[in-house]
Structures are given as C-alpha cells and as structure tokens.
Amino acid sequence: MRGFPAALVLLVLAPCAHGAGTAQSLVATTAEEQGLWQRVAEEQAALDRSGFVLEEPELEDYLQAVVARLATADGLAEDDFSVKLVRDPTLNAFAYPNGRLYIHTGLLARMLNEAQLASVLAHEMTHATHKHALKSQRSLKTKTGILQAISLSAPVAGDFSPLIDLLGVYGTAAAVSGYSKGLETEADEVGWQRMRKCGYDTGEAPVVFRVLMADLSEHARKEPFFFGTHPKLADREKNFARLNAADKKHTGGEKGEERFAQATRRVLLINGELEMRAGRHDAARDQLWRYRVADPSSVRVRWLIGENERVAGAQGDPAEARKLLEEALAMDETFAPAHRSLGILLYRAGELAAAAPHLRRFLDLDRTAHDRAYIEAYLEKCEPTPPPAPPAPAS
Ligand SMILES: [Zn+2]
Q1: In a designed cystine with 145, which of 34, 141, 225, 284 is the match (CB 3.0 to 4.6 A)?
Q2: Is pTM beyond 0.90 here?
C-alpha cells in the first residue's frame, strides 16, 4: 500500500473472514470472451490516459481495501479487481468485464459511510463476476443508439459530453444505459449477499439510493449516467429494501462512518470545485462546507467557498464571498487565486482602487496565469495610464 495509513487499511480488512480454499479468479474463458476483454482493455486504456482519472494514491488504496474485503468474503481473488476514481461531479460508478471498476467523485462525495460505498462497489463487482457484458453483448445497442435513447428521454443539464465521448461501446453500456433489468437485479442481489457476508449494515444499501434520488429531485437535476437517472435509482432502492425485509435474522452491521469520512475527505474538496465549475453552486456549497468543518485550517477551501459565492451570480452571496476571500488572504497572503477572485469581485463592484493591488499581486504571484491577458485588461481599467505630458514649449 502506498500512502494510506496501514492501520486504516487493516481496519477495513479485519472484520472479514477470508473465503476458504483457493480464491476464484476472474478469467476470460472462451474466444468470444477473450475478444471482449481485448476490446474493453483498449477502451479502458483510452479512459486512463484521458486526464479524467484522478491520481489520489491514498484514496485509491482505501477503495481497493473495501473491494478486497468484499472479494475475499466471497472467495474471489482480490487482485482481480481494481478501482479508479473519475474526476466528474455526476453520480456514477461502472465496471468493465475484466474487474476494473470506476467511481465518479460526484457519487463518492454524496455517500455518508463505508457500507453505502460497499453496496455500490459490490453491485459493480457482480457485473464483472457474473459476466453481464458478455451476456448482453449480442443485444447491446450501438453507442449512438444508447445516446439517442437518453437524449430523447431527458434533457441533460450541464455539458458532460467530453467524458461520454471518451467511453467506447462497452463503457457507454456500463456507465450510461446499464444492463437489462434482470441483470441489474442480479447485481443487486449478489452484491447485497457479498455486503452481508462482510458484516456491513445492509440497511445502508437502500439509504444511499434514497440520498441520491433526493439530491436529483431537490435540484431538478438531469444527468446522463446510470446512477443519475431516477427510475434506475428507484429500482436499486426497491431491490435492496425487499432483500432487507426478507432478511429477518439480520440486525445491524457495520457502517464504517468515521473511517469513510477520514479516507474520503479530500473528495469533498476536489469534487466541490468540480461542482462549482459545472455551475452546480448549491452542491459545491454543501460539499465545500463539509470539507471546511473537517479541515478548518485549509486556505484553499476558504478560497473555493468564496469563489463559489462570487461566481454563482444571483444564487451567490457577494458579501460572504468577500469575507471568505479576505480570510483566506489573512491566512496566506501568497495564495494567488484568492487575490484574483477578490480583485475581480472588487472590480465588478466598482471599487477599482481596491481591486488594483489584488489583480497586480495575482499577476506577480502567478507568472504563468492562463488568463494573464484578461486580468491585465481589468488592471488597465483600474490603473489608467496618465495622459502623456504636453510637449515642452519650444524655447
Ligand atoms: Zn448495474
């Protein structure tokens, strides 16, 4: 394990009995399946190179430990599975047939404990172990077919096309349309069993889907991905609630709340910024404040909360923005982005003399600023060059 505190990883793994005997491996057995694995490996390599995959070794180790716990409890080889984080604020997780799982930062940022995370990962692992991609291969729509179906059913808010463009046929099927209702139900049922074998609180499985549905409804959000569509979430919630109702003997289980909060804290900061940049200011506000409570000495989170209030327009609070940006600079006068934000805020408020030193300081601190020309244009209006002195009278 890389940087993840070993004690935390042990805590994730400890309560789980390892499956007896030799672990069952995930392998492509037929020529058809081998061909499928080869095609998905190409799709996956393109996604991994795209810049959408987040490099956060400690966080990846934590996710990997949860997957390993679910795998070993069911006699599966833990090395067959790997988890990557996708830098995207939408709600989604998906699996490739070779055991590679992806989870969006947007989904992780809305979860409250490890049992909820386990319910989603266990569902995704089942798509791989039960060969759902192979079983669906012949009935799979083309990528264009899938995208036409979603664009007809729901206008999608925000521009998520760069990520969808990257996904190939199998990625789009796994991430956007999902599989048939029967296979999705199987993924819920087997996933639920795996979660239960590990001693997780299965009561949290329907809860996570209720949280996601409430989030989508509250903000009237439409998203293109599988876990971002209300009917798909309602199916998961119903399946998990049914399984729990039939499980008379089982009470409670482990939630892993604190461990989850500690391990995934940085996701709130990273995803909060993504929400802000996608114009989802309410979600950004919520996640960034949750991060700030956990890490009150962070200058970056103060800047981000202030910046979010600044760029939110009519939904924002400029007075709050100003206060937070000033606080960020009081903590660290060399934090360039806060000078930029405060300078622009003051400029737009007509306080040109107050704006100028912040804009100037930003340009001094960030020599390679991508928007240098834009800031210089603002600065020129704040510090107009004095008119040239009249020529001296000829003597
Ligand atoms: Zn699924």
Answers
A1: 141
A2: no
